[in-house]
Amino acid sequence: xxxxxxxxxxxxxxxxxxxxxxxxxxxxxxxxxxxxxxxxxxxxxxxxxxxxxxxxxxxxxxxxxxxxxxxxxxxxxxxxxxxxxxxxxxxxxxxxxxxxxxxxxxxxxxxxxxxxxxxxxxxxxxxxxxxxxxxxxxxxxxxxxxxxxxxxxxxxxxxxxxxxxxxxxxxxxxxxxxxxxxxxxxxxxxxxxxxxxxxxxxxxxxxxxxxxxxxxxxxxxxxxxxxxxxxxxxxxxxxxxxxxxxxxxxxxxxxxxxxxxxxxxxxxxxxxxxxxxxxxxxxxxxxxxxxxxxxxxxxxxxxxxxxxxxxxxxxxxxxxxxxxxxxxxxxxxxxxxxxxxxxxxxxxxxxxxxxxxxxxxxxxxxxxxxxxxx
Length: 374
Prior knowledge:
By secondary structure, the protein is an alpha/beta fold. The protein has helices at residues 2-22, 75-82, 145-158, 200-212, 220-223, 234-237, 254-261, 273-277, 284-300, 326-329, 342-350; strands at residues 23-30, 48-52, 61-66, 95-99, 116-120, 166-168, 179-180, 182-185, 245-250, 310-315, 357-359. It has a 7-stranded mixed sheet. The protein has a 4-stranded parallel sheet with strand order 8-9-10-11, with helices on one face. Keywords: Cell wall, Cell wall biogenesis/degradation, Hydrolase, Secreted, Signal. Pfam families: PAE (PF03283).
């Protein structure tokens, strides 16, 4: 028994050692000066981000990642979110794991390892778009995401991003000489109906935009043609984006299946519960519905033209977010399309070594997937 215990301890030690190599922790930076500008989280606390500074040849290159985490569409939902890490920097962990696209070793992140890599924490509930001046003293809710976006960029500019040569961010806030490209990881949420035919997500987004005052931040080119809530959908906005952009998305995005296709309000008897937890538990009729959702997703991509400045890696996995973990970004068992990892596809596109616009065959054909099991 003692011998077995030693073997177990050694194996656990090796696993932990491997995990520590593939990922490491980076401390949290609070932007306390932003509070006076009203650029605050839902609860009025200061915004925050994690930064791992660049070095060597990458010292003037910047990768700025704006975290996601769903939305709150009304006062009740925002109150439920306010005192969590998604509504308050006071509730955030003081360190964050950096792995995958954020790693600082060329073995794990060959094209961006020496860049300044930043994760901006999400705490406003409207994808950094809200801007409402008034604060109800009864709730103390602040809808100020757009202000957070701006003060974070201003702070990073002061810390050296004004010298940026390469930077994944928005063109207008950066020096004219900066090469700017954008990457969307699991952010292409589509306007699809639920399993019972209702337009749940469309109404939800309309409420988000109304509650947070987001209309003024959305593209006028879009809002002049349709309601602001519809302009919250990437499929209606992508045609107006001039900056080169790369989409990484699972055609069976696990978040979308759980929250757009089969949310609780549309599945009150829980018949989709097991399927949403593990795609291998889906019935044949549920798989048929998922295949239909994939077709809707691909149809929504039609506005995403095939210009060489645009890239896409659309695999047939049941997952959500694939750049921030080593196993899906770059490893010997990572997801592949045309025998290419996500890391290589993005790097080739960014440095213009080649174009990459690939869409996977339908589930379950792709055996390289890391399907989520919840």
